[in-house]
Automatic annotation (TrEMBL):
Pfam families according to UniProt: Aminotran_1_2
GO biological process, one term: L-histidine biosynthetic process
Organism of derivation: Paenibacillus ferrarius
Family the UniProt entry places it in: Belongs to the class-II pyridoxal-phosphate-dependent aminotransferase family. Histidinol-phosphate aminotransferase subfamily.
PANTHER family linked to this entry: HISTIDINOL-PHOSPHATE AMINOTRANSFERASE, HISTIDINOL-PHOSPHATE AMINOTRANSFERASE 2
Catalyses which reaction(s): L-histidinol phosphate + 2-oxoglutarate = 3-(imidazol-4-yl)-2-oxopropyl phosphate + L-glutamate
Residue ranges occupied by any Aminotransferase class I/classII large domain in the UniProt entry: 30-355
Protein's name according to its UniProt entry: Histidinol-phosphate aminotransferase
N-terminal signal peptide: none
Oligomer and partners: Homodimer.
Cofactor(s) needed for function: pyridoxal 5'-phosphate
Keywords per UniProt: Amino-acid biosynthesis, Aminotransferase, Histidine biosynthesis, Pyridoxal phosphate, Transferase
Length: 366
């Protein structure tokens, strides 16, 4: 059996190494994972109770329309329920967007170094991916605008950008959208938006009210701490959401995911505490990097990319031997950088201690 020709060249997504595998491979008893931008503080205490209550319904299909969750999220955001669509993580919403709007020969525009699932899903549909180089780790919106043609169907903006952590401001996004042709759908992937504290982050809800061709993606995997349950969502004009719904698989989010997300979205005090701890963690790491004379991109999510001036694979392996899992930039297009999730204070301190040891033993890149 031969697979479709649009997928034969595609790489398989490589997630961060799991804790259990590292313990087994290296004989370690303590491993800290700072590789996948998970919440080191877990999830709201209310989530556990919601999951325990849901066990009684384990034999029943979930609500295909996620009605209760839709109502809660809509109320939280100030939008209508018909402006929301849920998926098994925002990854699935990306997949559905590509399935709903792209056909063979269409073009789609994205940054050169960004979340790889945009390109992956677009090329499955036979679309041509136009990749615009970043400028200082940030989306070049003018360059992306210039790349739009009559064939362009979707533009992807990851904000804050993964893997660099950089941000395009509200003013920049507004100026960009004012020039984008109406036939082009602009996807604002805001998986890390809840961590932002700048006061300059785009108000995507307001933008969606102004532009029918804008959709924002968000997730419960990051600050809400529900990564294992796979639930994310899109917010857009009802017509756009209706089109995506037409390709959505039935029962695509589980009862447990919906119950957990419902409990999580109602506990905004937990979200506030996580945001504050993340801000403190970012400040600590930036201070430490400055003392080590290492340059990091401005970080606006719950991770930071820092240039260690050495082969990223060597630094990754050196940290791994010390029980610290990060993401090596050699896998992300940044051969002398590493991406590290902001952990708890204790985790951050252990990471810095291990990093100092590794930097002392790995030669600077010539």
């Amino acid at each position: 059996m031969k697979p479709k020709q649009t997928i034969v060249h595609l790489p398989v997504y490589q997630p961060g190494k799991p804790i259990e595998e590292v313990k087994r491979e290296l004989g370690l008893t303590e491993v800290i994972k700072l590789a996948s931008n998970e919440n080191p503080f877990g999830s709201s205490p209310n989530v556990k109770a919601a999951l325990e209550a849901e066990i009684a319904n384990i034999s029943l299909y979930p609500d295909g329309g996620a009605v209760q969750l839709s109502e809660a999220v809509a109320q939280s955001l100030g939008v209508a329920t018909n402006q929301l669509i849920f998926g098994a993580g925002s990854d699935e919403v990306i997949l559905m967007l590509a399935r709903a709007f792209l056909v063979q020969g269409d073009e789609t525009v994205m940054a050169s170094h960004t979340f790889p699932q945009y390109k992956h899903n677009c090329e499955i549909e036979g679309a041509v991916s136009i990749e615009v180089p970043l400028i200082d780790g940030t989306h070049d919106l003018d360059g992306m605008l210039a790349a739009i043609t009559d064939k362009t169907k979707i533009v992807w903006i990851c904000n804050p950008n993964n893997p660099t952590g950089t941000m395009n401001t509200d003013a920049e996004i507004k100026a960009f959208l004012a020039k984008v042709p109406a036939h082009v759908l602009v996807v604002l992937d805001e998986a890390y938006c809840e961590y932002n504290t700048t006061g300059q982050f785009p108000n995507s809800i307001e933008l969606i009210g102004q532009y029918r061709n804008v959709i924002a993606l968000r997730t419960f995997s990051k600050i809400y701490g529900l990564a294992s349950l796979r639930v994310g969502y899109g917010i857009g004009h009802p017509d756009v959401i209706r089109s995506i719904n037409q390709v959505r698989e039935p029962f695509n989010t589980s009862r447990f995911a919906q119950a957990a997300a419902l409990a999580a979205v109602k506990d905004q005090d937990f979200i506030t505490s996580c945001r504050e701890a993340n801000t403190a963690g970012l400040q600590y790491l930036n201070e430490q990097f400055a003392q080590l004379d290492l340059h990091a991109f401005p970080a606006h999510g719950n991770f930071i990319m820092v240039n260690v001036g050495r082969p990223a694979a060597d630094v990754f392996n050196g940290l791994l031997r010390r029980g610290i899992i990060i993401r090596g930039g050699h896998m992300l297009g940044f051969p002398t950088s590493i991406r590290v999730t902001i952990g708890s204070r204790e985790q951050n301190e252990k990471f810095i201690a291990a990093l100092k040891e590794v930097l002392a033993e790995v030669a600077v890149q010539a």
